[in-house]
Design brief:
The complex is a heterodimer of chains A (about 280) and B (about 450).
Chain A (H helix, E strand, L loop, with lengths): L6 H21 L9 H4 L7 H7 L3 H34 L2 H16 L2 H12 L4 H8 L7 H4 L1 H26 L3 H9 L4 H12 L1 H16 L3 H6 L11 H11 L3 H31 L1
Helix pairs in contact in A: 1-15, 4-9, 4-12, 5-9, 6-9, 9-12, 10-11, 12-15, 14-15
Chain B lengths: L1 H19 L15 E9 L5 H16 L3 E9 L2 H12 L8 E5 H9 L7 H5 L9 H6 L9 E6 L2 E6 H6 L11 H14 L4 E4 L8 H12 L8 E2 L4 E4 L2 H15 L6 H4 L4 H9 L5 E7 L3 H4 L10 H4 E4 L1 E2 L8 E5 L1 E6 L6 H11 L2 H10 L7 H4 L2 H4 L5 H6 L4 E3 L6 H16 L5 H16 L4 E3 L1
The chains are: A mainly alpha (about 280), B alpha/beta (about 450).
Chain lengths: ~280, ~450
């Protein structure tokens, strides 16, 4: 009976969210294509796409790059930088906080394609970064060519930190001043207060934020595609890039959706881990 | 909290500023009540696009001749690959499929297999101008069943474009006529020695330049190599393990290792061709490169990189075979067509639009604007065409030694595997032998062992 008021929402979710997921799942067992014979009459081919994927030499590398990209740019970069900024801005002067806030949020409000071109212009061979290092007398480094993964990770941290910062700002605002003051009166240092009082109190926000930025980062496509297009020699080809190449460049929709399903499973695994974290802490 | 709201309003301001920089494009035309509508999808490159001009002209003429019919033009800006993807996606549903569209000849067969294209045999039988198209061009619009599904707009070839000034300064005699691959290296080394700041002889490589890497670089080597090749037409099988493949990769490796080409990092930039055509050659900072017969379309008046002196400064030479063996030179051809959607509601109107675009006058302007090689005999003989640019004759002559890509449905994937082989070699990731072995493996996994023959 509780479900009755939720029915319209459930129906909408079913049509617009679950529908495409189920279709992708189904598509990954067929040889559906954009062009050629299989575009007209796709056939059920069972697990062929998956066996081909797991024996594809590019797959383990893409998987590793995707996990590295998520861990380093989201879980470590955006998360800690966002928390750090939120903490610092509580103590900073109002004007300083506003200026820093605008700078950080600016990267986040830019449409993704614009942000991607900005990042490209920054890391490009004759781009801003090399001109700046050139002024300092350092040799130019072709970032996108020599360190493509580092460049896209840094760009993604720059782009996404604002989100974590705002989540933590809101969370920190909900921590009562009395509690932290009490801790300080009891002789706890700032680090200890943060670790043993503040962090446990915003634990739920941390888990929620981690889940959101993990799923966002897992799906990042535009940024990488514009900056490196997955190159050079596939050294920045994450799973979304690989799925795009297979589905749209080689017209192999079935194979592309199989990669998408694998991404779905990775996302689900991360989400479950975060939910676990929340629950266990609650039980204790 | 005040700080947060200030942050947000400032952020909104930034967003507004960022957005005001990009004006929104015009929307599609509205449908007149009761009127017929034709949707046309085609590719537009740059602001001065000859194809866009052709389509605009055709739309005007066609709407004037057909009361109540609206033509909706949908130009797609982007690379060839992006355009092909966008077109294929629109063709997946009858609601979004265009009536008339610009179609790459090498996608034709697989799109016919997918049932996207209308069979034009009956319509062409009633079109008296079809006879003025030359036989080779007619072939380009045919599928495996022998029927015609598209009408070619033009064709092209690839030749070596060299800067006479740079070659003369290096002591190379012009007109330059290389006889074999060694002659190419000899010229490049001479340029490097005399002009250390110039790029002597660049050939595209890597996945960045996509199809340009194979069409304007690797295939000229592979098809002119002493043995091997890409595809064996007689047995309909792909060729693996050929010495020619290794030799071609080794040649590219030499160019990049000896710094006779652009740097590997520059080569992987998808926009490197703009640097070559727009900067290096006009500024006398490059000896030569392999480019399409349509290169003058960028340099002539109104082109993307207008360069009034190009006719005097540039020269062309056919790309030589490896050791000068018969037929002595090699070229690659592609070309684009207009086709009609299989699901169009107005096949007759769509065909009328196609023939309006393809009439002698319209196609002549387009052929000249876009530096195409004529496909209609009455255009090939027109004085305006023959005098359009100084190179028309030279780039048309290599039609005798040209090759077409094997247009199978898995071609795109094989092409990428080849691009990756060239990339591995120029970046030092693999030796030519290793890269060729990797290609052989990939090839077998794409087409299956049974469709591969050892070269």
């Amino acid at each position: 009976m509780k479900l009755v008021p939720l029915a319209p929402a459930l129906i909408l979710i079913g049509i617009f969210l679950a529908g495409p997921i189920v279709w992708s799942f189904y598509g990954s067992f067929t040889n559906a294509a954009l062009t050629g014979v299989n575009a007209k009459n796709p056939e059920w081919i069972g697990l062929d796409n998956y066996t081909a994927l797991f024996s594809d030499p590019l797959f383990p590398q893409s998987l590793l790059l995707t996990v590295v990209f998520v861990l380093v740019s989201a879980v470590i970069g955006q998360n800690f930088l966002g928390l750090g900024l939120a903490l610092l801005m509580r103590r900073a002067h109002r004007v300083v906080a506003a200026v820093v806030g605008v700078c950080v949020v600016a990267a986040w409000v830019l449409p993704e394609i614009v942000a991607a071109f900005v990042a490209y212009a920054f890391f490009f061979r004759d781009g801003t970064l090399n001109q700046l290092t050139g002024l300092a007398g350092l040799p130019a480094v072709d970032w996108l060519f020599e360190h493509p993964m580092l460049a896209v990770i840094l760009a993604n941290i720059w782009r996404g930190t604002a989100f974590s910062m705002m989540v933590y700002q809101a969370a920190l605002n909900d921590v009562p001043k009395e509690v932290t003051e009490a801790a300080e009166i009891d002789g706890a240092g700032r680090g200890q207060t943060l670790l043993f009082v503040t962090v446990p109190m915003i634990r739920r926000s941390i888990a929620t934020n981690l889940m959101l930025i993990t799923l966002q980062t897992l799906a990042v496509f535009t940024l990488i595609y514009v900056m490196t297009a997955g190159g050079p020699t596939n050294r920045s080809t994450t799973l979304p890039i690989m799925a795009y190449e297979e589905a749209f460049r080689y017209s192999d929709i079935g194979y592309g959706t199989a990669i998408a399903v694998v991404m779905l499973i990775i996302g689900a695994a991360f989400s479950l881990a975060y939910i676990r974290l929340l629950r266990e802490r609650k039980a204790s | 909290m005040r700080g947060a709201s200030q942050t947000l309003s400032a952020a909104a301001l930034v967003a507004l500023l960022a957005l005001s920089g990009c004006a929104s494009g015009g929307g599609g035309g509205t449908d007149d009540a009761g009127g017929e509508t034709l949707r046309i999808i085609y590719q537009k490159t740059g602001d001065e696009s000859p194809l866009d001009t052709l389509m605009q002209t055709t739309k005007e003429q066609f709407e004037a001749a057909n009361e109540g019919v609206t033509v909706e033009l949908e130009p797609v800006e982007g690379t060839d690959e992006d355009y092909n993807t966008r077109l294929a996606l629109s063709q997946r549903s009858p609601d979004t499929a265009p009536d008339v569209f610009y179609e790459d000849t090498f996608r034709l067969r697989s799109d016919v297999e997918a049932g996207y294209l209308l069979n034009l045999d009956e319509h062409l039988a009633g079109w008296d101008e079809w006879d003025s198209f030359n036989e080779a061009a007619k072939e380009a619009g045919k599928a495996d069943d022998g029927s015609t599904y598209a009408v070619p707009l033009g064709t092209d070839t690839r030749v070596i474009w060299y800067n006479k000034q740079v070659l003369q300064d290096a002591g190379v005699e012009v007109p330059w006529q290389p006889e074999n691959w060694d002659d190419l290296l000899e010229m490049a080394r001479a340029v490097k020695e005399s002009q250390p700041d110039a790029v002597p002889f660049s050939m595209y490589a890597g996945t960045g330049t996509g199809e340009g890497t194979v069409m304007q670089s690797f295939y000229e080597l592979l098809y002119g190599a002493e043995d091997g090749g890409l595809y064996d037409e007689s047995s309909q099988k792909w060729i693996a393990g050929s010495q020619g493949f290794v030799d071609s990769l080794a040649f590219l490796k030499t160019l990049y290792d000896e710094e006779l080409a652009v740097t590997p990092a520059e080569a992987l930039d998808p926009n490197v061709w703009q640097t070559v055509i727009g900067t290096l050659l006009p500024e006398n900072r490059m000896g030569a490169t392999v480019e399409g017969s349509y290169a003058p379309s960028f340099w002539q008046e109104g082109g993307q990189f207008a360069w009034p002196e190009y006719g005097d400064v540039m020269g062309v030479a056919p790309f030589p075979t490896q050791n000068g063996q018969e037929p002595g030179a090699v070229s690659m051809s592609g070309g684009w067509t207009l086709a009609i959607g299989a699901g169009t509601e107005n096949p007759d109107l769509a065909f009328e639009f196609l023939t309006t675009a393809m009439n002698q006058e319209n196609l002549l302007s387009y052929t000249i604007d876009n530096s195409q090689i004529a496909v209609r005999t009455d255009i090939a003989e027109a004085p305006e065409y023959l005098e359009a640019n100084p190179f028309v004759g030279a780039v048309s002559e290599v039609v005798d030694v040209t090759h077409y890509r094997p247009a199978t449905s898995n071609y795109a994937e094989i092409s990428t595997a080849i691009q990756e082989a060239t990339e591995a070699v120029i970046t030092g990731g693999a030796t030519p032998e290793e890269a060729a072995a990797t290609y052989d493996e990939t090839l077998k996994s794409i087409v299956g062992e049974e469709n591969v023959v050892e070269g």
